[in-house]
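Subject: Sanity check before I submit

Could someone independently write out the structure tokens for this chain? I want to compare against mine line by line before I put it in a report. The sequence has 622 residues.
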Amino acid sequence: MAGAVSAAKDDAKELLQSAPPSSDYPNAGYINLIDEAWYTVREDGSWSCRTRLTQKICNERGRSAANVHIGYNSAFEKFKIIRARTIKKDGTVINVKPSEIQEVTPYSGYAMYSSVKAKVLIMPAVEDDCIIDYEWEVSGRKSLMAPHFWNGWYYQSGEPSLLSRFTLQTPATMGFGSQPYNTDIKPVVTTSKDGKTKTYVWEGRNFSEIEVEPYMPPRSEFSPWFEISSVTSWDDVAAWYWKLVEPQMKSSPEVERQVEALIKGKQTDEEKARAIYYWVEDNIRYVGLEFGASAYEPHSAVDVFANKYGDCKDQATLLITMLRQAGIKAYPVLLSVSYRGDMNRRLPSPGQFDHAIALAEIDGKQYWLDPTAEVCPFGDLPEQDRGRDVMVIRDGKGEFVRTPAYTTETNSVTQTIKVDLNADGGISASVKWTTVGGPDLSTRATYKYLKPSRYKESFEAVVAAIAPDAQLGPFSISDHSDRETPMTVSYELKAGKWASRTGKFLMFRPNLDQNASVQTPFSKSNRKHDMWFAGASTNASEMVVNIPYGFTVEELPSDQSLKSDFASYERKCIVEGRTLTITDKLVRQDAVVPVSRYAEVRKFHEDIIQAQNQQVILRQSD
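---
Independent answer below. Compare away.
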């Protein structure tokens, strides 16, 4: 292949001979034969990272691996393909031609992110038992936080990995920290003959695929990996980011006029901050780039304001600038949405963060603000930002603070149901849902982006689960643009076959949905991973059933009271005259439950299902 380097030796025959048969891995779509990277850091701050991925395709499920996308940023990185080829099972080698390698700009419609690129390779002649083998290099003239470097390496993936190796080469005098997680693999260290460089090699072999399970922990909590960083303190990270962001928080006459218009007539700083936050949330289009993909330096607030779009750090910078223009203290905040643990146990580096938001301080109260959430009320945060160690940067000084986690009161769905039951088992019913917290944001987003012409269709899908012949009646949705008021959704329905009629008896389950099957996420007899129940929540309902004339209660489901440190479930059935009231509440706690308690968790959910499958039995009087 044109542009190949000497390091890419011709080992096709060796790969075919050493690769295990696909039958040894019946669950695998493909096998990672080689997953390797060579990371070189030089005295002048320049760096390069060469990566090789060699995979045996086992079956049709694995062929998606042959569609390769590799991202980089052309503003500060150079990219080259060293080799890309398919090795057929008969030994034939088919190289990807340079003309067949495409470069795409995912955000071509956004001038500020035109440097974000991706190389696209469609590996040729892919068939079962072939091998795809490709190698590439990304390099930079200097680190984004010169002279420091940082990186991380996971040995395990969603498919088996036979060889996983990471090699680091640095000047011999350059120090760095190294931290392994969930493994005791240590690097093998060698020094060059001239004593000028050191090479560190981390190597692991024969890793099984990661088995995906419901409520499993993040990969960082159980899978073997390590991280490296030459950054010595979090204070250095905070000072570095402040130098990037502070010059970008400059206003302009246009920004000043917009702020003045927004705060006109507002009496308090909270009212002013609310108006500015909602303007940014509503008017600055979010471009979903991962923090770091478009570098770490935000664009200027003036540019973001003019272009009316930005990624997380851009939106936060504009919001802070406008708040400060209104005389309100506001600061940039860095966080990781993918890591919920203690940031102080991690090595300091900019790479620990993948999101940016803002913090406003008004009259001694903190207001966390994430305008990228788009439907989030002022002072609220989406689930991904909650319960995280975040770095608040005030004038170059960083401080870790934990954002508030959801509570069972602030993250809930409440359902109120009224059912008029007929003697033949048919019903007329009305339902009202009220949402708070995460369910409120998801409901609000659903109806913000769903075409109004499809609202009815969405309700028809809901009532179809209630009874086989359910017919939708009037429905209503509260104003999704009113973020200060919890969303409410209401609808009415009629169904001719809600309760089962057998002779003199009417029977139905103690919940509205008679047609939906109740399933547990813990059906397996055993599991590998601990259970992570992220985010406390409450799901509560009250169903009032008007019993038809001439019927009395023959049998009621038993009251339930299931309690554990990770969840509780309560149900009560009360009869007063011709009215049956069934209250039902499931409360989940934010908890990590060890896998040794899996039988307990499984039984808890099975008990709930059994309770929900019990029957109310009504008897017609003689």
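---
OP: Matches mine. For the report I'm noting this point. The longest strand covers residues 30-41.
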